[in-house]
């Protein structure tokens, strides 16, 4: 993969969808809470859920951008992406904590 293709993937994954910043915060809170339930069985508090969810959305958006155009998604697709990325993030954090 050349540098231009990598830049294009990164640009697609970080492009704002039609959700907007307030939507990202709301979706981040919901995604962080859902991921907390999936991975460890409990939430982490509203502020930490937002952080986990927004970081998860970036991770999920980056990973899915290799196979899909993630900038075209709406609320539901963004929520799915954020939950997927948040689960991956919490799983990785769990692996690091165990060692």
From TrEMBL:
Membrane topology recorded in Swiss-Prot or TrEMBL: Multi-pass membrane protein
Presence of the UniProt keyword Metal-binding in the record: no
Predominant cellular place of this UniProt entry's protein: membrane
Signal peptide stretch: none
Family: Belongs to the UPF0410 family.
Any one of the GO CC terms: plasma membrane
Native source organism of the sequence: Mycobacterium talmoniae
Transmembrane parts of this sequence: 20-39, 46-68, 74-96
Cell membrane found in the keyword field: yes
This protein's name: GlsB/YeaQ/YmgE family stress response membrane protein
Cell compartment(s), UniProt: Cell membrane
Keyword annotations of the record: Cell membrane, Membrane, Transmembrane, Transmembrane helix
Cited InterPro entries: Transgly_assoc (IPR007341)
